[in-house]
Amino acid sequence: MPAITPQTFKKRSFVYHKLSAKHYTEIAGAAVSIHSVVEPQATVSLCDLSNLPRTGFRGLKAAQHLLSVGLPIPAKPNQAEKSANGELVLRLSQKEFWILANTNCEQSGYSKIDNLLNTTVPKEQCFALYCQDSHAWLLLTGEYLGKIMAKLCGVDLSSEAFPLGSIAQTSAGRINIIVVHHHFNGQPCFSLLCDSAAAEYLWDSLCDAMQEFKGKERGLLALTNS
Between the CA of residue 29 and those of 8, 26, 157, what are the distances in Å? Predict the structure, then answer.
């Protein structure tokens, strides 16, 4: 059986040309990098999660809709909260929510997002958002997260100023991004979401900013098992 590559599928990550990984698995009809070689001294990792499932909703009844399917609602905008199944609910405004898949899931664990996509949305005052297609999703993990982002972003993203569960809607390297401070595999991390057209630029900018701290690309499975 031929090895899975990004070219195996019509759906591909926005940064697949940039990835150096040799091993991929199929998730949600696309190839996701699972392994990459990382030197033992690497203190920071960058992982492409753009093909993992996610969705969003906007409107006066968006919060009500999410509650009806068992998802938590962060208390105020620019906060994130994990569901019982590990999905990450982002509250970007009073009426806008994004839901990111559990990054520690096996293939079968992404059914919650699938159910959301197939659930009947209230006919009025709740509209689906297609952030799966509009935005790339990169994951920065390890030490020095705030110092790395300080090279690209004027907002203070140190742990003191930007605690777990915080969201910053800001710019980095002159492009608009959403930064979410949460846990991955028990360790603090930043999920970075940017317009798909700017994904390769953000990837290159992060790789450059990580060099001082021996940052390296890493696949999802390698990151989960680290």
Answer: 10, 6, 34
